[in-house]
Structures are given as structure tokens and as C-alpha cells.
Specification:
The protein is α+β, with helices and mostly antiparallel strands. The chain folds into 2 domains: 48 residues, no CATH class; 58 residues, no CATH class. 47% of the residues lie in helices and 15% in strands. The chain contains 5 helices and 6 strands. Strands 1, 2, 3 and 4 form a 4-stranded antiparallel β-sheet that branches. The structure holds zinc ion. Zinc ion binds next to loops.
């Protein structure tokens, strides 16, 4: 596929995707090309050089790299705050360990007093809980909190 920057007789610019350069020319001569804004069929290639979508794939890869860099930076920036938040959660929740799914259910169905709990659950168990409408979130527990004896 090739992308051309196109302009119409009324100076609108837009992108057109074509199987090949020849296909663009064929459609242009057959006046099968219309401006998406005004419908004008006097469409010509814009000033910019055409580019193939290999280029945009590369650009997408660059964007992805930028995004992951940004995400990493963001994680570092909010790390201390998240750690404080998790410490707060841990200080204000009952540790029910492996009984977490069962306890979460009991609380949800009001078979146990309303309270905030934490514990472990498998991915399947978490999915089951969510299917039942029970809100649970995974928190990354900082290592120093895991190592701390209770
Ligand atoms: Zn136009």
C-alpha cells in the first residue's frame, strides 16, 4: 500500500491509500477520486513526497518506544506515592491470606461484616469474583512490605 497526500481543486488536502502508484494514476485519470470534503474530482498529488506504509509502521514502532519510555518514567515518578498508598491500604485492611476469594464473597453477599480485606487469589479466582460483581484490584506490594514480619 502507498499513501499519497492529495489535494483537490479547492485546496483541501487529504490522504489517499492505493495499492500502487499506477493504481493512483489509473483512478485519477478515470476521475474516480473525489475530495472527501467537497467531492471535487480534480484531485492531484500534494506537495509532500509519497510515503509507503513501511514508514508509518516504523513510526508506529517509534511511537510505541516513546510510549513505553513515558510509561516507565511515569512509573518512577509516581512510585513513592503509590508505595505510600499501598502502605496505607495494607495498614487499613485485614490480611485474610488465601481465604481472600471466600471472604470477599462473604462480604459481598453480606454474610460477613463489611470490611476491607487483602489476600491472595489466583487469576481465575479474581475473574470469578469480577463476574459476580465483586470489585477487586491487584496491588503491587513493595518488597520491603512483604519482607516485614507481621
Ligand atoms: Zn475539496
Amino acid at each position: 500500500m502507498i499513501v499519497f497526500n492529495l489535494t483537490c481543486g479547492n485546496d483541501h488536502s487529504f490522504e489517499g491509500w492505493f495499492a500502487s502508484s499506477a493504481e493512483f494514476e489509473r483512478q485519477q485519470h478515470a476521475t474516480q477520486l473525489n475530495c472527501p470534503m467537497c467531492g471535487d474530482s480534480t484531485v492531484s498529488k500534494g506537495m509532500n513526497a509519497p510515503y509507503v506504509n513501511i514508514g508509518s509502521a516504523q513510526q508506529a514502532a517509534d511511537n510505541a518506544a516513546l510510549t513505553s519510555k513515558a510509561a516507565a518514567a511515569q512509573y518512577i515518578n509516581i512510585g513513592a506515592e503509590v508505595t505510600r498508598m499501598i502502605e496505607h491500604l495494607i495498614a487499613n485492611t485485614d490480611d485474610v491470606g488465601n481465604d481472600f476469594p471466600e471472604e470477599a464473597r462473604k462480604i459481598h453477599y453480606q454474610e460477613a461484616p463489611e470490611r476491607k480485606i487483602r489476600g491472595s487469589a489466583s487469576r481465575d479466582e479474581v475473574e470469578e469474583l469480577r463476574d459476580e460483581g465483586i470489585e477487586v484490584v491487584a496491588v503491587p506490594v513493595p518488597r520491603h512490605l512483604l519482607d516485614k514480619p507481621h
